[in-house]
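Dear Dr. H.,

I hope your travels went smoothly. While you were away I took the liberty of generating a structure for the chain from your last submission, since the lab meeting agenda had it listed for discussion. I wanted you to have the full record in hand beforehand rather than looking at slides cold. The sequence, exactly as received, is reproduced here:
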Amino acid sequence: MDTNTHFFVFGLQKSGTKYLKKLIEVNTDLKFKTKYVWKHTMNPVDFYDDGVEKFWITKSPYNWARSVIKRHRVDILQKYKKYDLKEESGMVVRGLNVKNLTTLYNHYHTILINTDLVNVRYEELLNDCFPFFKKLSNKYDVKLPPQKNIDTSKFYIKPEVKEEYLTVPRYNDPLVVEINKYIDKDLINRLGYEVA
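The corresponding predicted structure, in token form, is as follows:
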């Protein structure tokens, strides 16, 4: 068994960092590393090897854009000012520029894909988190089978929302069409997603 006892989760806002953190806490003996670095960092030096087990959660570009646009966008406008997400040229949905949002997605994931972080896809966790914990059990004391739902109001995912995330996006959806103009297709293939 590995001797690491602490873990940390990286990911872009609205990618499921809190969800993965809670799943790991509920199903393993790993302890979350507090007072560490900003979990949404784009600075490669923050991913150094220091004995903390690091995970990186991703969401497909289509699901991620919908999460940011249609749900609470947290502090994304303040933290990524250089991407000018409020720019009014091109397609703008609920006050967010889709081209610039997609550029942010491309830049963030291009940086992290070149690190040694363990990548976890949000959609796979949502569909069935057992394989993730099965792999993790090779290194750590993991309670199997893991709890597939977190029964708290903060982390409970409604069935209709879950279904939305697990449904293949329509290629002719205007949002999907706009994202496909700017998404780095090689990158999303490397992340394990398909172009809609």
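Two observations you may find useful: The chain has nine helices and six strands. The beta strands are 6-10, 31-32, 53-58, 92-93, 96-97, 118-121.

With kind regards,
E. W.
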